[in-house]
Amino acid sequence: MSATLYVLSTLGGYVLTSALLLKCPGLLHRPKRQRFRCRHISHRGGAGENLENTMAAFHHAVNIGTDMLELDCHLTKDEQVVVSHDENLKRSTGVDVNISDLKYSELPPYLCKLDVTFQKGNECSDISAFACSVLPMANPLVSPESHSEGKDNRIPLLKEVFEAFPQTPVNIDIKVNNNVLIRKVSELVSQYKREHLTVWGNVNYEVVSKCLKENADIPIIFCLQRVLLLLGLFYTGLLPFIPFKEEFLEIPMPSIILKLKEPEKMSRSQKFIIWLADTLLMRKALFDHLTARGIQVYIWVLNEEQEYKRAFDLGATGVMTDYPTKLKEFLHNYPV
C-alpha cells in the first residue's frame, strides 16, 4: 500500500510540476533573446504574386511591408550561392540540368509562368520532404489552375538579396547537404553583418548540425527529427524540463494537404493519418509554451484567410504565404 501511495504521489508531483512549467516556463528557462519577430513571411518572396525566388518577388514583398523573406539556396559549379528552390531546373526553367553542374553565367532563365506549389492541385514537394516519414501520401496531382507570371526570370545571387534588403530578416533553406554551400552562406552572412537578421536550416538533421557548427551566431530551425522529438517530449510532459538550441519552429499545417490533393481520391487511412498529424502538431499549448521561451513558431505555407486565422488563433508567431498582399490585408484586420 505504501509503495502504491509513493508511486501515485511521485507521478502526481511530476504531472503538476510539468503542467506548471508548461504554463510558466520562465520559472526554469530564461527566454531566448529575439533579434527580430515576424508575423508576415513571404514564401519564396511571394510565389503566388511574382515568379518565385526572384528579385522582383523580393522587392514586391518588401514594398508591401513583409517582415521576412523566405528563400532557398544552392551552389553553382563555380561556387556561387544562388537563390533557387530546385537543384534540378527542369520544373522552373524547362531545362533538365542541375545547378551544381553549371557556372552561374550558364544558368538558364526561369519560365515566364510557374505553378504555385501550395495551391489546390499543385505539387507539394516541401510537405512531402517534411512529412514523408509520418504521412503515407500519394504523389499530389499537378494542376495548371494556379500559377504566377513575371518578366524578371533571372536566378539571383544570395548576395544580391543581402545588398538590396540590408534591414530585412531573411529565412534561408539550405537545400542540399553540401559543406561548401553551408560555408559560403555563412561567409556571406558574416560579410554583410546579418547574423542578427538571418535564420537558416533544413528538414535534415545533419544539415542543421553543420549550420550550427559552422556559425553558431546564426539562429537555426528545428529539423524534422527534432520536431518529432519535440512532440514526444510535449506529450510525455518532459518538454518544460528540456533546453533547446533552436530558436525557430517552422512546420507545415498538415490539414492543407487535403486542399492540395483531391480528397475524394484519398483513402480513408490517408485522411485519418493527416487528421491525426494535424491534431498532434497544431496545439496551442505547445505554441504558447515555445513562444514564452522565446522560440518563434512559423506555419507554412498558408494561402487562405481561414488558414491564416487558424494559425494565429493557435498562437503561431508568424505565417509563411505565397500571397503577401492577401496576408497583409488579413493582418490589417486581425488583432495583434
From TrEMBL:
CC terms in the record's Gene Ontology section: endoplasmic reticulum membrane
InterPro entries per UniProt: GDPD-Related, GP_PDE_dom, PLC-like_Pdiesterase_TIM-brl
Compartments, record wording: Membrane
Record bears the keyword Lipid metabolism: yes
GO-annotated molecular function: phosphatidylcholine lysophospholipase activity; phosphoric diester hydrolase activity
Family assignment from sequence similarity: Belongs to the glycerophosphoryl diester phosphodiesterase family.
PANTHER family for this protein: LYSOPHOSPHOLIPASE D GDPD1 (PTHR42758:SF1), PHOSPHATIDYLGLYCEROL PHOSPHOLIPASE C (PTHR42758)
Protein name per its UniProtKB record: GP-PDE domain-containing protein
Organism: Bambusicola thoracicus (Chinese bamboo-partridge)
